[in-house]
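Consider this pair:
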Amino acid sequence: MEGKKKRRLVLVHGAYHGAWCWYKLSTLLDSAGLQVTSLDMAASGIHPNQLLDITSVSQYVEPLLQFLRSLPPEERVILVGHSFGGLCISLAMEMFPHKVAAAVFLTGWMPGPHLSYLSLFLEFKHRLSLKFNLGSKTVTDENTNDHPKRYMTCDLQNLASNVYQQSPPEDLALASSLLRPFPIFGDEDLRENTQLTEENHGTVARVYIVCEQDKIMEQDFQLSMVERNPPNEVKVIAGADHMPMLSKPQQLFSYLQEIADIYY
């Protein structure tokens, strides 16, 4: 039992969200004796950075990298990345492969040494633009007036119909109060700062969890990443929307317990 208490899962949210979205899952994992750390990426959740503070994808993921740097040398963790959190944990795997026992991609982006995030994003953007109106907005720093930044917001109707459609209404209400705008990163930034190698990223065990009813990261897109960048294991959550930690927390909890038992 003492060994189980030392196992730690680090939960990384997707775009617009924050550590708050894991509240159901964190409770279940904690009750099972697993250590849980839910992090806010920069300018997300209650992280103090504001949208205008974020100039690169590296800066956005810095809270995760800082946490891994702070771990004792002998401690390893299981990373769980939801949606855009999949890219975040991929960058962490590249920088700290020795600190990651396994990486779990929860309906998440899963780039690799031979499958770039930028190519996946351009493909995804085309798919999504055929279904939704992908509008972006621009904000300018009043103090400098010369560094406009583009960002995305998620409206309530889109949340209800395509993101939280299988989740309880109270979770949709919670999200509508807590979501924050998401920065749009430039192609050059993504090309330069999301490169992964076999020597680092490629040494970490990976598990992909497919969400069957996801209308954003649709099942065929999830499976196409699995086919092009095969993980060690694939699991499926039937009936889960894009927010499985809210729509199917018990099933997700069971899978993460299994993963911790196998890979830790």
Summary: The two ends are 14 Å apart (CA to CA). The longest strand covers residues 100-106. Residues 1-5 have pLDDT under 50 and may be disordered.
